[in-house]
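Retro notes (design track)

What went well: tokenization of the new backbones is finally stable.
What didn't: we kept losing track of which sequence belonged to which structure.
Fix going forward: every design gets posted as structure first, then sequence, in one message. First example under the new rule, 161 residues:
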């Protein structure tokens, strides 16, 4: 992978000037390369990883990993059904995987019922979907290479002898 992309992948907030200094190149060349990557669709989005546990949101979202077993379509394989599935607004990610299941779908909803309804009413009833297995995420420890640490108060009772 290009060294500029490697730097941006680790920290998308780094400036072209900082990248230029790191790579011993001219800032103008870095800016031009980044614009080219954006235009070509190599760079699709700049993302911030947020530790939502620290925010203590009033309405936390529920995230589920759903394994989907599908029947591939003749001459289209998995593409058409994957496209149909990732078009739902509840779906945040969709991957073709090896193993017992064919797709891994990441879904977000405002509560367990919302995600359950999505699986029962939208996903499972799609033509070519043979079965699903839903795994609700209980806690995140690491996301996109970032450890989601936060300090917790020690709630243990002190014991002295």
């Amino acid at each position: 992978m290009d060294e500029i992309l490697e730097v941006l992948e680790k920290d998308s907030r780094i400036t072209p000037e900082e990248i230029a200094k790191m790579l011993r190149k001219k800032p103008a060349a870095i800016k031009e390369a980044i614009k080219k990557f954006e235009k070509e669709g190599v760079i699709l989005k700049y993302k911030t990883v947020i530790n939502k546990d620290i925010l203590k949101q009033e309405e936390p979202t529920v995230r589920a990993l759903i394994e989907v077993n599908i029947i591939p379509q003749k001459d289209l394989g998995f593409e058409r059904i994957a496209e149909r599935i990732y078009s739902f607004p509840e779906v945040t990610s969709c991957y073709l995987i090896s193993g017992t299941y064919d797709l891994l779908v990441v879904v977000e909803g405002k509560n367990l019922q919302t995600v359950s309804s999505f699986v029962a009413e939208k996903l499972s009833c799609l033509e070519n979907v043979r079965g699903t297995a839903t795994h609700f995420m209980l806690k995140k420890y690491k996301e996109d290479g970032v450890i989601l640490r936060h300090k917790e108060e020690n709630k243990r009772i002190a014991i002295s002898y």
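Added context from the reviewer: Strands lie at 62-70, 91-96, 103-109, 129-136, 142-143, 146-147.
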